[in-house]
Design brief:
This is Oxidoreductase. It comes from Rhodopirellula maiorica SM1. This protein is of the alpha+beta class and about 350 residues long. The chain folds into two domains: about 1-150, Rossmann fold; about 160-335, START domain (Alpha-D-Glucose-1,6-Bisphosphate, Chain A, domain 4), CATH 3.30.530. About 40% of the residues lie in helices and about 20% in strands.
């Protein structure tokens, strides 16, 4: 069983734990295995390239401690701060389980059936030949899941939405697009100014400059955040026009800044999940610039999904108005640099 961002077993664990606050716990969930981080699997494969040729040999590779599939789900839930209720059931056959997985996860039922059938029997490492012949020391399940989560976050930060999504305009689907566990609202607007001018209002966003649309709604959101113990809307920003990674901007935190190209903010208000606001500016063919504004949300369970879809109608005019406000301010800046 391989644990790593993008691996099928990790995708299945993530989907089950994040979407189901009450989890059915069939017998196969308690079957023990020796899960191994995908990075360690690759390290084994790389080291074999330097091994001398000789007789064929079979190695068992796995993590340092036996863990059940349920144990993997428990550890993922712990690291994500999720609480899940188990209901043990003795009657979920591999076929029924595969249909269930097909309904609640991105895994097709026929693939889920193969996975479940493979989990009916223990797959625990029973000899240490790999530890004797290789220098690899696999990490435990806690570290493997931590790495997978970190890598998942890195991949999302590196994503260029101008490539990942259509640049034709607003996202057409109700509720946005799903990328892994995240929900994305991405929209673009074209402006007849160069990228350096287009980026100025983005770099100045928040604080005294405001959010370019629905300022009273943002203040209400900040007040609500304070009521539940959040940071609220009172922090402002360190500097009116300069930003650095780690700076606070109202109830956001600067996670990435690429001058005249990209600004990524991580939400620090109280949310049933994690949120980001991403701005990207690129030159447009024929002159001018294209500004892309992307809101991302990584929901924590069903309440997180309910939150996203319940505020989606509000997003339609708030985020659209913000993007229009950025474009209008960019044109003003280009016409009058003192603006």
């Amino acid at each position: 069983m391989v644990i790593g961002s993008g691996s099928l077993s990790f995708e299945l664990v993530r989907a089950l734990v994040r979407k189901l606050p009450v989890m059915l716990w069939p017998k196969w969930v308690s079957t023990e295995a020796s899960p191994i981080a995908i990075r360690d699997v690759l390290s084994y494969l790389m080291e074999t390239l330097d091994m001398p040729l000789g007789d064929s040999k079979i190695y068992q590779i796995g993590g340092p401690e036996p863990v059940s599939y349920g144990g993997i789900m428990d550890e993922y839930a712990r690291q994500r701060g999720l609480k899940r209720i188990r209901i043990r059931v003795p009657f979920l056959s591999p076929r029924i389980s595969s249909l269930w997985l097909g309904l609640v996860t991105p895994v097709y039922a026929r693939i889920g059936r193969k996975l479940v059938e493979g989990l009916r029997n223990p797959t625990v490492v029973t000899n240490d030949a790999a530890l004797q012949d290789f220098s690899i020391r696999p990490v435990g399940i806690e570290k493997a899941i931590q790495r997978a989560i970190e890598r998942e976050d890195e991949e999302m930060v590196e994503t260029r939405w101008s490539d990942a999504l259509s640049s034709a305009g607003p996202t057409p689907r109700w509720g946005g697009e799903a990328f892994g566990s995240r929900l994305v609202d991405s929209r673009t607007i074209d402006v007849d100014v160069p990228p350096d001018c287009a980026f100025v209002p983005i770099q100045r966003i928040g604080g005294d400059a405001g959010w370019y649309y629905g300022e009273w709604l943002w203040k209400i959101r900040g007040f609500m955040d304070m009521l539940v113990g959040g940071v609220g809307f009172r922090r402002g920003r360190r500097h009116a026009s300069n930003v650095h990674v780690g700076d606070a901007i109202d109830f956001w935190r600067v996670e990435l800044i690429e001058p005249n190209q990209r600004l990524r903010l991580a939400a620090e208000m109280k949310l049933p999940g994690r949120g980001w606001l991403d701005y990207e500016v690129c030159p447009r063919d024929g002159g001018g610039s294209r500004i892309r504004q992307t809101a991302e949300f990584d929901p924590a369970g069903l309440f997180g999904l309910f939150y996203w879809y319940s505020v989606w109608p509000l997003h339609q005019f708030v985020f659209a108005g913000m993007l229009r406000g950025v474009a209008k301010r960019a044109e003003a800046v280009c016409n009058d640099p003192q603006n």
